[in-house]
Design brief:
Elements: E1 2-4, H1 8-35, H2 40-64, E2 68-70, E3 74-76, E4 87-89, E5 93-101, E6 104-111, E7 116-120, H3 128-143
Antiparallel strand pairs: 1-2, 3-4, 5-6, 6-7
Helix pairs in contact: 1-2
């Protein structure tokens, strides 16, 4: 079984966006507390909520989120918009090709029924070469092939 998660630079950008958005919300809450003469506990609750959200999002993104798990029978794709087919068996994969989609390096898994799955390798926490090597090994095993070295 192989498990591919978000690349670290992408996680940093996502967490930065979450922090910025929550910072703006806390700032707006502080302005509302001052303008409407609300109790200070409202702001405290808002800040504590923001911290909890940041910790929860950080935990989910870094520990729990598997984008592309491979197992003996097939693959699944999670959280990637525009990937196409989200799950298939290795036996249903006709071939895998390298492609560039919207300027991003991708691996396209073409299925026997004409559908496909597009996996942008730059968002994965693995080198493209290591990902392709692992993908090839799973495809070969799924089809019952053995590589001759």
């Amino acid at each position: 079984m192989s498990d591919y998660r978000f690349a670290q630079p992408l996680l940093v950008r996502m967490m930065g966006a979450v922090l910025a958005a929550l910072g703006v919300l806390v700032l707006l809450l502080a302005v509302l507390v001052a303008a409407l003469d609300l109790p200070g506990t409202v702001l405290t609750v808002g800040v504590v909520t923001a911290v909890v959200v940041v910790l929860a999002v950080g935990y989910v993104l870094t520990r729990r989120t598997s984008l592309v798990p491979f197992d003996e029978t097939g693959y699944r794709v999670r959280l990637l918009r525009g990937a196409g087919v989200k799950q298939a068996r290795w036996k249903d994969v006709e071939d895998a090709v390298a492609a560039e989609v919207s300027g991003h390096r991708c691996v396209v898994l073409r299925l026997r029924d004409g559908r496909s799955t597009t996996l942008p390798v730059e968002v994965l926490d693995a080198t493209p070469e290591a990902f392709v090597t692992d993908l090839r090994a799973h495809l070969d095993k799924g089809h019952g092939y053995r590589r001759i070295n």
